[in-house]
Amino acid sequence: MKRPTNVLVAGLAVAFLLAAGCSNDSDSNVPGSQDESRSSEPVEITVLVTESEANTAEFWDASIAAASAKVPGVTVKKIVSIGDEYPGQLRASGQLPDVLGQVNVDDLHDTLMPYDEAWLEENFLFWESGVYSDGNVYTPSTGTQIVPLVFYNKTIFADNGISVPKTWSEFLDVVAKLRAAGVTPIEMAGGEGWAADIGMVGAVTTDVLGKDPEWIQKLKAGEAKFSDADFVGAVQKMIDLVEAGAYDPAALSADYSAANQNFLDGKSGMYPMGSWFIGKGYLTDEQAENIGVFLWPSDNGTAYLPTVAGGTFAVNKESPNAEVAMEWAKAWATNQESYKPLIENDAAFILLKNASLADLGVDVTPLYMEGYELATGDAATSVPSFRWTGGKNAIPSTVADGFMGMAQAVFTNSDAAALCADLDAQWAAAQ
């Protein structure tokens, strides 16, 4: 299906985006109004967040304070995540926070409180994308992101007579031309699993989910396998890129910051990365002027938009303060004060029913608008971005880890079928 033309897309890896404030003091489900079924006696809740270059400690402190001001009697103890496995570790030790950011719903859904659909419908566009396989929404789809976009250096392309590729064969031609020009064709933050697999995410999303957007559902139903021909073929493409010299020999030792800098310094021609890279938290206006963007190419040139339905906070239903925590989570999700820094610094494209970029008075680059046009236009068909997507398309974290490891393994293992068979085994173990 095409993306709705009035839908904005979020650029943040965890898509911590916000909805327009639509308060109605007579409706206890709408943040900003106190739930009269409880008292306003002081309550402390714990909130897990992930800090980043764009979503700094200062950002979280300010947005947490603003949300807390809308929920009488609530104070917040902020807990900063130390990695993807941290929520599971906290749960295992009996310390799962009341409110959880950046969690894998597939791992924790049995301990999460669902959001009510009336509130979701009132505040968000495309909220249905966050529906989990049991029919509930555990993190509201307040925004989406594109993972990956392929960024390219305009000067390097122009100097070498290179046009933006639309098909896979054209993409391979670009790789060959850049290699011949002495330029690393594709930048890769191979030292960090979550970033190392972004190219493979593009290949799988395009070649597997582009053909069958319900493939993950079939995988869960036992009707598909990672060893299916299309999935193996997508992994083979990544092996082919390695063998074609598409990456720097030191790619597996480059972390995210180093890879960003390599690309911005003109050491590489292309950089598959999430749409958050468009934000001013990563690029200056001058740098953005020299960067273009395109979608991961398919074999026949059909354009697919690898979409991640992003949510805000999940709520721990086992918390003694679960109802208050839900009230606070809704207040955070409808706090407009946090919009501007998210949009400007982290390229957040928002999924709101009652706000626009003009309303918020944001300052964005032409590159941001180029990505926005890709995300909101009719030129590409939206499909779930493999491994990044939540809701019903979420996969267990152990399998996600295996996929990330496979993206690194292709540098030393050229047997795509064997790699995919290993992933099948990991899937079976996770069931």
Question: What can you tell me about this protein's structure?
Answer:
By secondary structure, the protein is an alpha/beta fold. The protein has a domain at 149-273 and 396-430: D-Maltodextrin-Binding Protein, domain 2, CATH 3.40.190. 38% of the residues lie in helices and 13% in strands. The protein is built from 18 helices and eleven strands. The chain has helices spanning 57-68, 86-92, 105-108, 117-123, 154-159, 168-180, 193-196, 198-209, 215-220, 229-243, 256-264, 285-289, 322-333, 339-346, 357-360, 366-376, 397-409, 416-430, and strands spanning 43-49, 74-80, 99-101, 141-146, 149-153, 184-186, 268-273, 291-294, 304-311, 313-315, 381-384. The strands form three sheets. The protein has a four-stranded mixed β-sheet with strand order 2-1-3-10, covered by helices on one side. A four-stranded mixed β-sheet has the order 6-7-5-8. α1 links the parallel β1 and β2 (74-80). α17 (397-409) runs antiparallel to α18 (416-430). The protein is globular, with a radius of gyration of 21 Å. The model is unreliable at 1-36 (pLDDT under 50).
Task: Reconstruct the topology from this structure.
Elements: E1 43-49, H1 57-68, E2 74-80, H2 86-92, E3 99-101, H3 105-108, H4 117-123, E4 141-146, E5 149-153, H5 154-159, H6 168-180, E6 184-186, H7 193-196, H8 198-209, H9 215-220, H10 229-243, H11 256-264, E7 268-273, H12 285-289, E8 291-294, E9 304-311, E10 313-315, H13 322-333, H14 339-346, H15 357-360, H16 366-376, E11 381-384, H17 397-409, H18 416-430
Parallel strand pairs: 1-2, 1-3, 6-7, 9-11
Antiparallel strand pairs: 3-10, 4-9, 5-7, 5-8
Helix pairs in contact: 1-13, 8-10, 10-18, 17-18
